[in-house]
């Protein structure tokens, strides 16, 4: 069943091509999603990093994309990275902006300030040897997590990789490193959610 899973990457703006290449390395062929009607052709979606305000604007002016994406993220597995995590959140600060609300977290945009505009760190995660390479680019900070949210990795005492049911998000960019643990765990989680359905 999982081998026939059709994965899409939202391709309005940001690092969607890097996600496509990362998935290709795992022998997963994903499709780029440019239009609302493409959502009906996929089972799961990655929302990439980039600029959440720009994506928000494009989503709202492309027909019913925003409304259809809102329905999609509440029904199907999604992975949001950086700006994608901001879009999936239930509350956004600095400044406040619309979000899809399928992940019960509050995020503060650009929270690490200038010094972390582009930096690489090592963080603690639940898998592998427990460490993970982290690329932060004007990253948001997860400042609140709801009771149903599980923290999969943290950095400097803050959650940076979280999951709630079939929704997963990172504040770093897994598509820019060689370690594919985030994708592997996301796919594994989809399998798990499908078998529990
Ligand atoms: N700062 C961006 C935003 O607020 C996110 C940056 C990123 O995705 N690398 O949307």
The total strand number stands at 12
CATH superfamily: Class I glutamine amidotransferase (GATase) domain
User: Rounded to an integer, what's the Rg over CA atoms?
Assistant: 15 Å
Uncertain parts: none
Query: Looking at the structure, what is the overall shape?
Result: globular
Percent strand? 25-35%
Helical residues, percent: 25-40%
| Average residue pLDDT | 92
Bound molecules: glutamine
What order do the SSEs take from the amino end to the carboxyl end, as H and E?
Answer: EHEEHHEHEEEEEEEEH
Describe what you observe in this structure:
With 197 residues, this protein is an alpha/beta fold. It has a single domain, classed as Rossmann fold (3-Layer(aba) Sandwich). The longest helix is centred in the last third of the chain and has 16 residues. The protein starts with 6 loop residues before the first strand and ends with a helix. Glutamine binds next to α4. The site of glutamine has 11 residues, from α4.
